[in-house]
Design a protein that fits this description.
Layout (H helix, E strand, L loop, with lengths): L13 H24 L3 H43 L2 H4 L7 H7 L4 H14 L3 H7 L13
Helix pairs in contact: 1-2, 2-4, 4-6
């Protein structure tokens, strides 16, 4: 397994990204094409149902990602409470969910520096990940 870095840490879920989403998107496109070719209540209804299916698939994916971010938020609050010093520990509640998700890749040794920097500069997830010097890989997460 290649070492994880900011450049390669994102994950693709092949069943979702290369099968499920394209199938539903193509089906929706086909239903819109059918609606244009043969306008009517039936083809309009099928296009609306196909659109609802695409939206449903996307919402299900977004809900799963939101739950993942909430778990990361909890894990990071627990970890940071152990690795940062007391003056900074009392400010951990000021970190946003987005910042905590970015900090999950920071090593314990640089966590304090990055927490201070993230709070002072109001850094977002991407900026925090780019500022990490010693990457702490996360190999335990599933696809996506």
């Amino acid at each position: 397994m290649a070492p994880q870095t900011n450049a390669n840490h994102t994950r693709i879920d092949p069943l979702f990204h290369y099968f499920l989403l394209p199938v539903f998107a193509i089906h929706f496109g086909f239903r819109v094409w059918q609606l244009i070719r043969t306008p009517g209540a039936e083809s309009a209804g099928l296009a609306v149902v196909a659109l609802a299916a695409v939206i449903g698939v996307l919402k299900i994916r977004l809900y799963a990602l939101k739950v993942q971010d909430r778990v990361i938020r909890l894990e990071e609050r627990l970890r940071l409470a152990q690795v940062v010093g007391e003056p900074l520990r009392s400010r951990l509640a000021e970190l946003s969910e987005d910042q905590l998700v970015g900090l999950r890749f920071a090593s314990d040794g640089e966590a304090s520096r990055l927490v201070e920097k993230a709070l002072a500069a109001k850094m977002d997830r991407k900026q925090i990940k780019q500022a990490i010097v010693e990457w702490r890989p996360d190999y335990f997460r599933g696809p996506g």
